[in-house]
Amino acid sequence: MVVAAPRRARAAPLAVAALAMAAGATLYVRDPRTSTYLPCPFHALTGLWCPGCGATRAFGDLVRGDLGSAASSNVLAVVLLGVGVIAWVLWVRGRRLRAPSRWIVVSGAVVVLAFTVLRNFPAGSWLAP
């Protein structure tokens, strides 16, 4: 017998979906490539690319269905969005998500750090937005 999830348990994932759809609609209406959004303060101060630089353009490209341009703007943001969608689907299905193990957290931090450093050197310029 399948027991329906309580209304409160369904409200949070639906709220997250509504916010994501509103953000996507905003990016669709105001294209980040032609509109002015808040510039990255880290890049403005240092001239270096942070791990999030290009993420708004990447999400705007994804809303328009252009995966190639999205990946060229910020491949890390595209991958992390995919991980987030998988986690959201598991959440909706009622799967309890455990906190990630220490090695996953450390590995993730190493990947983000390596991505940030590499995109700021000539050899990794293909990672820059």
Question: Can you tell me about this structure?
Answer:
By secondary structure, the chain is an all-alpha fold. It has one domain (9-33, 40-124). Helix content is 63%, strand content 0%. The protein has five helices and no strands. Helix 1 packs across helix 3.
Q: What's the arrangement of secondary structure elements?
A:
Elements (H helix, E strand, L loop, with lengths): L6 H23 L11 H6 L8 H9 L3 H26 L9 H17 L11
Helix pairs in contact: 1-3, 3-4
Give a short summary of the structure.
With 129 residues, this protein is an all-alpha fold.
Radius of gyration: 17 Å
Estimated share of beta-strand residues: under 5%
Give the tally of structural domains: 1
Give unreliable regions as ranges: none
Q: What number is the mean pLDDT?
A: 90
Percent helix among the residues?
55-70%
How would a crystallographer describe the biggest sheet?
Answer: none
Number of helices: 5
Q: Which key features would you list for this structure?
A:
mainly alpha; globular; transmembrane helix; DUF2752; signal; transmembrane; membrane
